[in-house]
Structure prediction request, 272 residues.
Amino acid sequence: MTTPAPGAAAEPAVLFAQEGPVAVLTLNRPASLNSFTRQMHRDLWAALDQIEADKSIRALVLTGAGRGFCAGADLSEFDFRPGDDLMFRADPGPVIDQAFNPTTRRLINVRVPTVCAVNGVAAGAGASVAMACDIAIAAPGASFIQAFSKIGLVPDSGATWLLPQRVGLARAMALAMTGDKLGALEAKAMGMIWDVADDSVDAAKKMAERLAAMPTKALIATRHLLRNAHTHSLDEQLDLERDVQSRLGFTHDYIEGVSAFLQKRPAQFKGE
Prediction:
């Protein structure tokens, strides 16, 4: 059953559904290609709060309603009326600080693995949201656009950090400067996304179901080790791996995983 995210208005900007251990969040402004308003950010945070609180949820799928995934910021929320104070009113800094940056941080730090089903265009911050998820699966007609240079801005919502990690500096530089559209198959070939599927939502749900049956704490620890590896030396990373392994050694799922292997039976992980 699909319901409004907790605390959402009558016409929620984000839909929340739970299918067994998988939460499915749908950005729900299809007429605007699911471009972000402040309300949509708040609705997304409310849904993430519910996921954080409900330990029965072990994985998350994020997708968009209609023909687009997310077209970035809804520029109609910016105040571009003529006047002497136009530049102060149109300053994108406050909404980035108060809405877009918290959204990226929430997605990267949510306690369950995340799978993005990119069902259509992912432009601007929409592409950043997709890259902030652990795994992205795109529909064949989906596209990714670093649209910022077309309006005199730089990539944001983490794009300047996420994009080079995914595709390398040379490709990230060209994509960011030109704002050229990148098709789904090209994005897969460059390493921006994991896969392309005719039904990206169904494929994402199947991936999420698989992840939901796995040791959640180990998956999230893997996320953080991989995402932050480029900020550490090899010696620092080796020490971090040691420390994380030691910490995971005290979890139920580690004991269960090794016991199941030794006993030649399927492991029953609890995410604990």
Summary: The mean pLDDT is 94. The first strand starts at residue 2 and ends at 4.
